Amino acid sequence: MRVTINDIAKVAGVSPSTVSRVIANNPKISAATREKVFKIMQEMNYHPNIIARSLANQSTRIIGVVIPGMADKAFQHPFYPEILRGISSIAYKNKYNILISSIGNPEEEKHSVKQFACGGITEGIILLASRTRNSSVSELLKLDFPFVLVGKPENDHEVNWVDNDNFAIGYQLTQHLIEQGHRKIAFIGVVPEHFVTMDRLNGYKQALQEHGIPCDEQLIVESRFITDNGYDLMKKLLERGKLPTGVIGCDDLLCFGAMKLITERGLKIPEDIAVAGFNNVPLADYSHPPLTSVEINAFSLGSKALELLLAALHSEYQSFNRAIIPAKLVIRESTLSRR
Amino acid sequence: MRVTINDIAKVAGVSPSTVSRVIANNPKISAATREKVFKIMQEMNYHPNIIARSLANQSTRIIGVVIPGMADKAFQHPFYPEILRGISSIAYKNKYNILISSIGNPEEEKHSVKQFACGGITEGIILLASRTRNSSVSELLKLDFPFVLVGKPENDHEVNWVDNDNFAIGYQLTQHLIEQGHRKIAFIGVVPEHFVTMDRLNGYKQALQEHGIPCDEQLIVESRFITDNGYDLMKKLLERGKLPTGVIGCDDLLCFGAMKLITERGLKIPEDIAVAGFNNVPLADYSHPPLTSVEINAFSLGSKALELLLAALHSEYQSFNRAIIPAKLVIRESTLSRR
DNA sequence: CTGAAAGCGCTTACAG
DNA sequence: CTGAAAGCGCTTACAG
User: Fold this and answer.
1) Which of A46, A71, B56, B337 could be a cystine partner for A41, CB 3.0 to 4.6 Å?
2) Which residues does the UniProt record annotate as the domain HTH lacI-type (chains A, B) (predicted)?
3) pLDDT digits over B16-67, tens only?
4) DSSP state of A215
5) Taking the C1' atom of C8, which residue's CA lies nearest?
6) Considering only CB atoms, which chain A residues are within 8 Å of B70?
7) pLDDT for the residue B32
């Protein structure tokens, strides 16, 4: 069916080895035969079979991306496409391809990870963390298969990982609100199983403490899922009889919901309540008022993750590396008191 | 290094063929040897090499997904993850894997498409349309490689494709506004190169016409990119001296921007201006006020696309199929006049 | 500079 | 029910 190396070898009157060497740009081939073979390859519309090459080379140039959150609606967060873009940009530069896990539930995730790691399809895996206890991490560790985690692992030392400094981010955003004169600052959307939210919360607590503001646990609203909506969380907060002057939401999307409730209650943002989020989603600019947030550079999280992975694959010596991607406070109207 | 079929054959004292048959669950193998071989496979932690199997089978069970819009920020639209989820759900059920194109610019896209199609890695391709003139379509057509387009092609007849009926959707949404008493309805965000937006616009025009409302071209605001923001488009509209009572944005995200400007100008939604969009992004529920939109079922677009592709791959006879995914008007406060 | 041969790890008619 | 052999389409030491 398809044109193979043998077909063009025959037509060119050379051996398959020679054709292979022409393709590989082996310098030992004479210019004459190189030309001749190339011409015939063109004419016969030859394209190397990547699978065969992978088998012979023992190298597939495919990396797997496992997205645990893909099952649920959270996957619609702009964060994920940005990470994928980042991964993809580095993949292209290094002639790698990206295989993504097709997963609905944790069962399928496990299966995907196993298949990627044991099936010899992928050379390495990028795992997008979503839960604190990620069984895929221990699985990959057990298999001794190269991978990079996007997000903080349970144990720093045996894993390659990339993340923001979420503690610092939480601290920074809280400090910004304190500087704007707030002392009653709520923190909504903490999911205890998610390191990200816990780290941000701890940053918040630290900032309060350093400014001599006692931490009121009643101002902290937990959430069971990262997808819970801010509207309900905000409502829960108000039902506790707490009326903060500032609200930090663990994600911008939560903030939009919270802002809706605040407005419905006839309160003004930022005059009555300032609101700030994390992740700087594109819409943060277009909410009403525009939302102060923290740009986490998801693109860089992705590209750096693949860089680490490729480094690990091509390095002779094993080491466990970590990369912290800088984040940046983006101040908008939702936290600007006009005093 | 890795355990191969030969290794376990030796240990089990059978031939590699037998091991292969055990793996393939060939019924001709005796229960006894089956058990024995399975046990040793377990003990030795054997996993078949997918690449080798692909080469022998001439079947990779990998399908490629090419995302032309991946280059730009538009990829952050919740639409894409949803499509991917849809594709992925069907992929998992059919034991297929998904390879995504790593592309930044049209050049890279072309390269990806060629590689996927000619390299023998993927058995078929799902192409997410983004431009009217998609060179990848003609490329794949020329290569006679199986693919399904998500979005409407230039020529219906030679392509498998999946889409919503965007004309009907545009019509439906416009009619809803007309029913709410609006006669001065603007339509913003038309990108002439995008079939989607043109079809929706034509539906709008048709609805106006059927209700005896003359179409005022001044009320239609074009956009150069799908990523243009609604804030600016809305501003452009108002600068023309046109003050509609209803605004339809070609995408919900545009509407959020438009709503921001409207509110800034001291106008009320929906009392002064009703706003409605398409695509029903998750945030439509949480905007202020909640945004009327059209649910396009992106998940189904994706899953149906893969279903069509698999059908095409496994069918003996070639045919060009088309699937229209139903959409549903979701009415929220942004268009509910309280008269 | 080029070719014959072995090998990558599997599958599958063909015999028996 | 099982094995020996050929083959999938490449690559790459080894000779020459």
Assistant:
1) A46
2) 3-57
3) 899 999 988 888 888 888 888 888 898 888 999 999 999 999 999 999 999 8
4) P
5) A56
6) 81, 84-85, 88
7) 84
